[in-house]
Amino acid sequence: MFPPLSGGLGEVYCIICTVTGAMYIGFSIYLVKRIRNYILNSTNIHLRRAIKMYGLEKNNVIIVEYVEVNEEVPVEEAKKTLLARELYWLDWLFSLPETLRYIFLPVACSALG
């Protein structure tokens, strides 16, 4: 389920391994909680291995875009906006060689519902 919105910002972010240059792109309204989830139990095995192999200090989180979430916009519309911005950046990521990606499906999706 999409969390309740009170207005504010969502972020499209990139986790980049400074050793290999490989990247992961996603979005979140609760970025700190989302990053903690990657560290503790990411379902992305490639990203989890990179964090384990190179350590957190070699896997940087970069916010590539802030997306305003307006409380007056219906939740489904806000979700579509965030997913569209994630897809924009995924399209860019998929223009790069496969060795530079921790994502292998060029589809924006959300654990938020």
Describe this structure in words.
- With 113 residues, this protein is an alpha+beta fold.
- It has a single domain, classed as 3-Layer(aba) Sandwich (GIY-YIG endonuclease), CATH 3.40.1440.
- It is built from 3 helices and 3 strands.
- The chain has helices spanning 31-41, 45-54, 75-93; strands at 8-17, 23-28, 59-69.
- The chain has a 3-stranded antiparallel beta sheet with strand order 2-1-3.
- Strand 1 (8-17) and strand 2 form a beta hairpin.
- The protein starts with 7 loop residues before the first strand and ends in a 20-residue tail after the last helix.
Task: Please describe the topology of this protein.
Blueprint: E1 8-17, E2 23-28, H1 31-41, H2 45-54, E3 59-69, H3 75-93
Antiparallel strand pairs: 1-2, 1-3
Unreliable stretches: 1-6
Q: Identify the overall geometry.
A: globular
What fraction of the residues are assigned to beta strands by DSSP? 15-25%
Helicity range of the residues? 25-40%
Oligomer: single chain
State the domain count: 1
Query: Radius of gyration from the CA trace?
Result: 14 Å
Keywords:
single chain; 113 residues; alpha+beta; GIY-YIG endonuclease; globular; disordered N terminus
In short:
With 113 residues, the protein is an alpha+beta fold.
